[in-house]
Amino acid sequence: MTQSMFPTAMASVSWSATEPDRWELRTITPxxxxxxxxxxxxxxxxxxxxxxxxxxxxxxFAVVEGGADAWTWRETLDDDGALLLVGGAGIRPVxxxxxxxxx
Length: 103
What we know:
By secondary structure, the chain is mainly β. The chain has one domain (9-95). Helix content is 14%, strand content 40%. Strands 1, 2, 3, 4, 5 and 6 form a six-stranded antiparallel β-sheet that branches.
């Protein structure tokens, strides 16, 4: 793949009908590769906005543009026809300078 399908890295939070009591969050590189790091919520309900942001911060990322509107949601089917719910948001690495009070 020579052209990235994602302009920035992405966070993906997803639920599958095959595992209805599990939501997971992963990061996706601009090249489309999934991170090995996974945050899991053992619940049938989607993680709150704050829970998603905390999970991203724990692995060194933040959403590019904050707020609930930063996440886009869609329904799709997996290869076996099971329902998938997927939310995505552009993310960026959190750097020490961004955390500094002096800037």
